Amino acid sequence: MEQHINKAKVLIEAIPYIQSFRGKTVVVKYGGSAMVDSKIKEMMMQDIALFKLIGVNIVLVHGGGPFINKMLDRMSIEPKFIEGLRVTDSDTMEVVEMVLSGKINKEIVNDIQKLGLKATGISGKDGMTLRAEKLMKNGLDLGYVGSIVDVDTGLIDSLLDSGQIPVVAPVGRDSEGNTYNINADYAAVSIAAALKAQKLVFVTDVRGVMEDVENPDSLISLMSVAQAKDKIEEGIISGGMIPKVECCIDAVESGVETVHIIDGRVEHSMLLEIFTQDGIGTMFK
Amino acid sequence: MEQHINKAKVLIEAIPYIQSFRGKTVVVKYGGSAMVDSKIKEMMMQDIALFKLIGVNIVLVHGGGPFINKMLDRMSIEPKFIEGLRVTDSDTMEVVEMVLSGKINKEIVNDIQKLGLKATGISGKDGMTLRAEKLMKNGLDLGYVGSIVDVDTGLIDSLLDSGQIPVVAPVGRDSEGNTYNINADYAAVSIAAALKAQKLVFVTDVRGVMEDVENPDSLISLMSVAQAKDKIEEGIISGGMIPKVECCIDAVESGVETVHIIDGRVEHSMLLEIFTQDGIGTMFK
Amino acid sequence: MEQHINKAKVLIEAIPYIQSFRGKTVVVKYGGSAMVDSKIKEMMMQDIALFKLIGVNIVLVHGGGPFINKMLDRMSIEPKFIEGLRVTDSDTMEVVEMVLSGKINKEIVNDIQKLGLKATGISGKDGMTLRAEKLMKNGLDLGYVGSIVDVDTGLIDSLLDSGQIPVVAPVGRDSEGNTYNINADYAAVSIAAALKAQKLVFVTDVRGVMEDVENPDSLISLMSVAQAKDKIEEGIISGGMIPKVECCIDAVESGVETVHIIDGRVEHSMLLEIFTQDGIGTMFK
Amino acid sequence: MEQHINKAKVLIEAIPYIQSFRGKTVVVKYGGSAMVDSKIKEMMMQDIALFKLIGVNIVLVHGGGPFINKMLDRMSIEPKFIEGLRVTDSDTMEVVEMVLSGKINKEIVNDIQKLGLKATGISGKDGMTLRAEKLMKNGLDLGYVGSIVDVDTGLIDSLLDSGQIPVVAPVGRDSEGNTYNINADYAAVSIAAALKAQKLVFVTDVRGVMEDVENPDSLISLMSVAQAKDKIEEGIISGGMIPKVECCIDAVESGVETVHIIDGRVEHSMLLEIFTQDGIGTMFK
Amino acid sequence: MEQHINKAKVLIEAIPYIQSFRGKTVVVKYGGSAMVDSKIKEMMMQDIALFKLIGVNIVLVHGGGPFINKMLDRMSIEPKFIEGLRVTDSDTMEVVEMVLSGKINKEIVNDIQKLGLKATGISGKDGMTLRAEKLMKNGLDLGYVGSIVDVDTGLIDSLLDSGQIPVVAPVGRDSEGNTYNINADYAAVSIAAALKAQKLVFVTDVRGVMEDVENPDSLISLMSVAQAKDKIEEGIISGGMIPKVECCIDAVESGVETVHIIDGRVEHSMLLEIFTQDGIGTMFK
Amino acid sequence: MEQHINKAKVLIEAIPYIQSFRGKTVVVKYGGSAMVDSKIKEMMMQDIALFKLIGVNIVLVHGGGPFINKMLDRMSIEPKFIEGLRVTDSDTMEVVEMVLSGKINKEIVNDIQKLGLKATGISGKDGMTLRAEKLMKNGLDLGYVGSIVDVDTGLIDSLLDSGQIPVVAPVGRDSEGNTYNINADYAAVSIAAALKAQKLVFVTDVRGVMEDVENPDSLISLMSVAQAKDKIEEGIISGGMIPKVECCIDAVESGVETVHIIDGRVEHSMLLEIFTQDGIGTMFK
Predict the structure, then answer these.
(1) Under a CB-based contact definition with an 8 Å cutoff, are residues E147 and E186 in contact?
(2) Is C121 in Cβ contact with B123 (below 8 Å)?
(3) E57 and E145 share a domain?
(4) F156 φ, ψ to 5°?
(5) Can you give the residue range of the structural domain that contains D231?
(6) Which of D53, D116, D276 sits opposite C54 (nearest CB)?
(7) What is the pLDDT of residues D224-247, one digit of tens each?
(8) CATH number, domain at E44?
(9) What is the pLDDT of residues A113-170, one digit of tens each?
C-alpha cells in the first residue's frame, strides 16, 4: 500500500507539468542511439505516448541513422564525391527514400501503435508538406540534396485534429516533382516554426552543451540565443555541436519558445527534460 | 537521476489507465472524513484534478457532513421529530441549503481551483437539474426531504463541455418551486445514471465490504450485483452498510458500469482504486 | 374581443423594442425593495423572463440586502470596526458567503424558474469568474472585502450559450483561494464591461437622478457622462447618490452603451425603462 | 404611468405563449380580405413579425386573390372552359405566374420588410420546392393546373436558418420543367406536412366553422378530425366550407399538430387565435 | 473507341481550369440574344451548370430584354417622357417588376433546373439584398428608376451555402419600401463587388471591344483599366460601348479580379471565354 | 473556334456524369501495366485528378507489381518455398514493405501531385487502418502473408475530409505489431466495403470478362453476381480470372454498388469506363 501511495504521489507531482503542456505543440527530432537500442527506443515511445495522452500535440521528425548506409552497402551502390563532398545521385536517392519512408518511418509508427495510440507515417512529399529545392553548396551540385523552401502544415494539422501522432520522414519535393533528401534537423526546425510549436526537442547522443567537454559536471542547463552565439564565437561550442546549436538558435529566432538538446541514451530522457525543474539537457530560449 | 527515472517509470505505468479512462464520465460522491481532514481533502482534490487533466469528465456530488448540525446548533434550531423520525421544517431547510450550497459547495470549488483547474458549484435547483418531490416515509410527512423524480443533465453537460468540474449540492426543487434536501448518495446514483457514467465512486469512512467485519484481511475487492444481494440476504452485509450497498446495486442496475466504495481516509484513495489492478476498496459491477 | 384586440396592439407596439434588443447583452444589478416585496419581486422576474424569451442575453448580479445583517445578528456575530470602518473578519465572511451564495442566489434562481425558464446561480468564485484582491481603504485592512482585479467571462458565456440565465453572487477569490465580499454595484459594472454589455441596469430604491430632490417632477431622464460629472461637481448629485452615479460613469467609460438607474419599487420597472420612449428612470450614455 | 404599467402587464401575460411557441414552425396560408384591405394587411404583417421575433419559424403561403382575374381582364385573355370547367392554357399560366411570383409575392415581402424583418419571396419552382404533376379532373385536361407530388424543404429550411421569412407563391414544376398553378390551400397543407409544422393557419373571410351559419354565437372553437368528418357527413359543414375543412383534416392527418381557420377581417386575428385561451376561429386537432 | 479517348482528353485538358476556379465566385450578367434564342439559351445554362458542378459559386443577374416593352405594349401602357428621358411611373414599375421577377427570373430558374441543378430566383428586394434610392438625372425625377446604395449579401451567401444558384432580378427597394427598377449592368457590378467576386462576365450581343469596329480581326483580348480609359478618351471605344466598358472599369476598381465582355450569340461563349487561353471576348483586369 | 466549341460540347456532355458522382466514394485498385508505362500512368493520374476535382472521394490502393521481385533480386534474397508455396520470411517482408510503402506509394503520390492535387501515401499500418492476421493456407505457415481482420477507416476519412487523395499500400499489422503483406485486390475490397464505396475499380491488364477469350468481340459489359457465379461454375471464367471475379463478387455482396474490371492499357480507361454509357470493361452489380 505504502508503495502504491508513493506512486500516486508521483502522478500528483506531474499535475502542474500536465497543466502547462496541454494543448501545446511539441516537435521531436528523433535520431541517434535512441533509434537503435530497442530498450531505449521503447522508453522514448512511452514518453511520446504519455505526452499525447495528456493532450500534447506531438509531432515526430526522424532521420535515417545507420540504416541508410547499410542498405546502400547491401545494394552495392558506390558513394560518389565531388571535390570531397558526397553526391546523392538518383540511385542513391531511391534507396534513401525507401529506407526513410518505407522502413524507419513505418517502424516508428508501429512502435508507437504497440502502446495503443494511433500514429501516421508521412514523408514531406505527402500533402506537399515539405517544398524543397536543390541545395547548392559552394556552387557544387550535390544531386538530390534539398533545402526547405516552404512548409504546408495542412496535412499535419489534420492528422493532429483526428488524434493521430504524425511521424515525418525528411524527404521533400520541388514543384516539378523531384524528390530530395533533407537534413532531419533542418526539417524539424522548419516544421516546428511552421506549426508555431512551443517546444522543439533534439534527441541526440550527447548530454547537451558542456562548458568544458572534459568535465561531466559542466553541463549548461539553460542558454539564451545570445549566449549560444557568444559561446560559438568563443569556441566553447565547437565541432559537430555547432550545426546542432545553430539549429536551436534558428528555431528560437523563428518563434519556437524553447528548444532542447537531450541525451537519447538516458532512459525516459524526454520526460525528464520536460517534467523536471532543471531538465537533463540544454534548453535554449 | 536514478530517482527521477523511477518517477518517470511510474508515469509510464499509468499509460494504460489513462488510455482506458479518457473521455469517460466518473461521478464521485464525496463525503465523510475526506471532507474534514484538510490533508486528506487536499489529496482528494489532487486526485480529482489529475483525472480531469487526463481527460476524464468528472462530476462531484457532496453531502453536508457534520457542518449542517453544527450550524443548526449555532442558530438554536431545535430538531423536530414525528414518531421518532426527524422532520425538516422550512427553518431547518433554509439552514441546510445555506450550508450545502453556500458553504460546503463553494469550499470544494475553491479547493479544486487552488490546483489551477476550473470548477463550478451548483445545487440541484440550478438549471432545474434535480426535480424532486416530497418523500413520504410510512405515510409520514417529514417536511422538506425529497426524492428525485427526474434529472436534467443539460447544465452539467454544458459545464463539462466548457471544461469546468461540476460540483453538485444535493438540493432539489419540485415543479412549484419548493426546495428539498436530498440524500447525497441517492443524488449521486441518479446523476450517474442520467449521465450514463462509466464509474460512480462513493468516498466513505469504511474500507469497503468485508466478508467478516472483525477480520481486516477479509475485504471483498469485486462483487457482482447478484453476490451483493445474496450477502445482504445472508446478513454478511448489515447495518449502515445495507443502504450504501443498495445504492451500488441500484447504480449498476441503472447502467453505471462499475460502482466503488472506497475509504476516503486513505491517502489518494481515488487514484489507488482506479489506477491499480485490485484497487483498495470494493468494486460492484 | 375589443379588449383582446387592444392587448394585441400592445404586443405589436413592442416589435421595434424587441428588434433592437435581440441578441444584445443586458446586465441587471438587482437589489433593494425589489428583492424584498414579494409582489414586486415577482414582476421583476417576469420582466427578466420576457427579456430572455425575446432573445436578450440577460445576466443578474445581486446584493445581499438586509438578509446578511439579520443572519449575523441571529448567529450573534458582533460587528467589528477599525477607525469607524466595518471589518469583515473570517467568521463574518463565512456568513456573508452562505447568505449570498446559498440563500439569496438560489432564491432568485428559484423565482425565475417558477416562470419556466432555466437559471443557474453562481458566485464569482465559480469558474474563477471574479478574481479579487484585498481592498485597502486609507491604508486600513478591512478584512475580507475585495476589489475586482479581473473578470473571466468563460463560465457566464457558456451558461448564456446553453440558454441559462446566470445569476451572480458578488463573491470573489484571490489567486491563493481567499474569499472576498465584493460590492455588488462594482461587480455589476465589471461584469457588464467584461461582457461588452449593451445595457447595465441598476434596480434601486430611488426614482433616478433628480434635478431637485424635493421636486418629484425634476427627474432627469437622460444624462451624458460629462453632465453627470458636472452635476456631482455642482453638488446637485450628492450623498449616497454619488457612488451610484460614479458606477454609471465608470460603466459607460468602460464601453457599456447605456446605464440605467431605475426605481425597483415601481411595477415592471425594467420593462417600462427599456420598452418606453422616455423610460421611468435616468439613463446615462 | 398607470397606462404604461398596464401595457407591461399585457406583455407579461404573453410569456407562457411565447414559451410554448419558440422554435416551433407555423405555416400561414394568407389570402382573402386580409390581402386586400391595407390596414388589415398591415396588422397581419405585424402579427407575423411578432411571431418571427419571439422565435417562431414562420412560413407564408399566399394565393392570388382577385389580382389574377384583374390582370387577365386587362390583358384581354379570354377564359376557356371544357365541360364547364375552367382551363388554364399557357397564356393564362404566364399571367398567373407573373402576378403570383412577380407582384403579390414581392408585395408581401415588401410589407414584411417595412417592419424591419427580412423576407424572401420564392415560388414553388425555386429550389425545386414544389414538384407537381398535371391534375386530371374527371379525366379532363384542365391545362396547367397541378397537384403536388413532392415537397423539397431544402430551400425553405435554409431560408429559415438564415433568419428570413419565406413567402411562397403556389406555383410548381414537373420534372420536365412545365409550370403549374397550384391551389394555395393544398400547397400550404403539403408544405406544413413536409416541414412537420406545429401549426397551420388558414386566414379566410369567414369566422370559422359555425354550428349554424345563421347564428353568430354558434362558432365551434375546437374540433377533432372525427368531429369534422361527422359534421361534413351531417351537412352541417357545407358548400365552400367543405374543401377548406378537408384541407384541415388532411393537414392534421399528415402530422400537423393543430390547424386553424381564422377570420382575416378581424384585426390581429393571428395573434388573437394563437395568444388567447379560446382563440377567435376554429382549431382542428 | 478512338473518339471516346479524344473526348476524355478534352476533359483532361480542363483540369487546370477547374483547379483554378474551384471555390471562386463568378457573377454573370445575362442578357441580350443569349436570353432569346432558345438553343443559345440552353447552351448558356449548360455552361452555368458546368461551372456550378466543378465548384464555382455562380450568381446570375439578368435584365429584362425585349419582354418588358412587349408587356407594356400589350397592356397599353403609354411611355411617358420628361425632356426626352423616359419616366418609369408606378404603373410601368408594376409591369416591369412582374416581368422581371415573375416571368424572366423564374424562366431562368426553370432552365437551369432542367439540367438537374437547383436554382433560386430572387429580386433585389428579397432579403433586402439591394437597397436603392431614386436616381436623379440632371435634376429630373424619372420616377421609379433607382441606383444602388448598398448590397446585403446575406441572402445570396446563404443560397450559395445551400448549393443553390442564385438568379437575381435587378429590382431594389428604398428604406420606405418603394420599389425601383435598376440597370442590370450596374446591379451586376455592385453585387460582384459586394461578393468580392473573382470574375464578372457580361453576356452581350457584341464580340467585345474592337480596335476598329469595321475590322473583325481587331478584337482586343485583354485590357487594363488604364488602357480602357485611354481608349474611351481617344474615341476608339464609343457609343453604347462606353457605359458597358465603364461598368467593367468600375468593377475592376471595386476589387473584382477580371471582368469579361463576351458575345452571347456564340455557342458556349462562357466556357470558351473562361476555359481557353485567350478567351473569345475582351477581358479587363 | 469550331474546334473550341466542339471541346466545350464534350465538357457539357459530362454534366450528367459529374452530377451522378459528386460526393460519391470510388476505390481504385491500381496495378499492372498502368503502373509501368509512363504515358499510361500519367493518363491514369489525370483521370484520378479529374474525379477528385468534380467532387468524387477517390481512394487508391496499389500493388507492388514487378518492382518487388526486382528489388529482392538486387538484394540477393533467395525465394523460399514450402510444399511449392512461396514463403514471405522477415527479410523478404522488410524489402516488400520498403518497396510498397517507401517507393511505389510515394511515386504515386508524386505523380498525382504533379497535377496540382494533394495526395497522402499511407500503408495499412498507419492509423491502424488494416488490422491483419497471419494467413494460413492448407495449414501451412507462409510467413508474413496476412489476411484482413478489420478496417479502421478513421485515417482515410480524415484525409478525405481535408481534401487529400489517400494512396494506400497493402501492408497490415496484427495486434502485436507484426507486419504483413496483403493481397492488394483483397485490401481494395475490404477498404471499399468499409468505406461503403459506390464503386470499386480494378485496373488490370485484361479487357474484362470475355464470353470467349479467343473472340475479342465477346466482352461482357455488365454482369450480375449470380451470372458471375454461374460463369465460374460453367468454366467460362477460368484461370487467373477466377480470383479477380471472386473479389468483384465479394465486393458487391459487401455492399459496394458496382465493381469494375477495366483494362489499364487503354488510354484514360477509368474515365471511359465511368463516363460512357457502356464503359470499356466489365461492370458487376
Answers:
(1) yes
(2) yes
(3) yes
(4) -60, -45
(5) 20-284
(6) D53
(7) 999 999 999 999 999 889 999 999
(8) 3.40.1160.10
(9) 999 999 999 999 999 999 999 998 888 888 999 999 999 999 999 999 999 999 999 9
Contact (CB<8Å) E8/F54: no
Q: Mark out chain A residues that contact chain F at CB-CB < 8 A.
A: 74-75, 94, 97-103, 105-106, 109-111, 113-114, 118-123, 125-128, 154-155, 158-159, 161-164, 171, 173, 176-177, 179
Q: How confident is the model at residue E169 (pLDDT cuts 50, 70, 90)?
A: very high
Q: How high is the pLDDT of residue E28?
A: 98
pLDDT in tens, E60-91: 999 987 889 899 998 888 888 888 778 899 99
DSSP 8-class letter at D31: -
Residue E66: what pLDDT? 82
Q: Is A65 one of the annotated binding-site residues?
A: yes
In a domain, D60, yes or no: yes
Burial category of F76 from C-beta neighbours within 10 Å (exposed 0-12, middle 13-18, buried 19 and up): exposed
Preferred mutation among C6, C15, C17 to probe D, highest tally of D CBs within 10 A: C15
- The ipTM is 0.94
Q: Does D9 fall in a domain?
A: no
Kindly state whether residues E54 and E159 are assigned to the same domain.
yes
Cβ <8 Å between D126 and E123: no
Mutate to test the interface with C, among D9, D11, D275 (most CBs of C within 10 A): D11
CA distance A116 to D141: 70
pLDDT in tens, A225-237: 999 999 999 999 9
Q: Measure CB to CB from residue E106 to each of D75, D101, D110 and give the nearest one.
A: D101
C-alpha cell belonging to residue C283: 439613463
The number of domains in chain F is 1
Query: To which residue does cell 457605359 refer?
Result: E243
More confident residue, B274 or D189: D189
Residue A17 is assigned to a structural domain of this protein: no
Longest dimension (CA), chain E: 68
State the cell numbers at D50. Answer: 411578432
Identify which has the larger pLDDT, C155 or F65. Answer: C155
**Residues in chain C whose beta carbon is closer than 8 A to a beta carbon of chain D?**
1, 4-5, 7-16, 18-19, 22, 43, 46-47, 49-50, 53-55, 115-117, 266-268, 271-272, 275-276, 280
* C-alpha torsion angle, residues D35, D40, D46, D52 (rounded to 10): -40
pLDDT above 80 for A65: no
Question: What percentage of chain F carries pLDDT values higher than 90?
Answer: 78
Query: Please, which residues have CB within 8 angstroms of residue D125's CB and are 6 or more apart in sequence?
Result: D171, D172, D173, D179, E106, E109, E110, E113, E121
At F84, is the pLDDT very low, low, confident or very high (cuts 50, 70, 90)? Answer: confident
Chain D residue with minimum CA distance to C19? D53
> CA gyration radius for chain A?
19
Q: What is the pLDDT of residues B199-213, one digit of tens each?
A: 999 999 999 999 998
| Residues of B at the C interface, defined by Cβ within 8 angstroms | 74-75, 94, 97-103, 105-106, 109-111, 113-114, 118-123, 125-128, 154-155, 158-159, 161-164, 171, 173, 176-177, 179
Contact at CB, A12 and B46, closer than 8 angstroms:
yes
**E41 in the same domain as E170:** yes
Contact check, Cβ <8 Å, A50/B12: yes
Residues E163, E35 share a domain: yes
Core vs surface per residue B18-44: b (16+ CB within 10 A) or e: bbebeeebbbbbbbbbbbeeeebbebb
Answer yes or no: do E80 and E168 share one domain.
Answer: yes
Judging by DSSP bridges, how do beta strands B80-82 and B85-87 pair with one another? antiparallel
Instruction: Answer yes or no: is F15 within a domain.
Output: no
In tens, the pLDDT along A5-32 reads 888 899 999 999 999 999 999 999 998 8
Establish whether chain A is in contact with chain B, requiring a minimum of 3 CB pairs below 8 angstroms.
yes
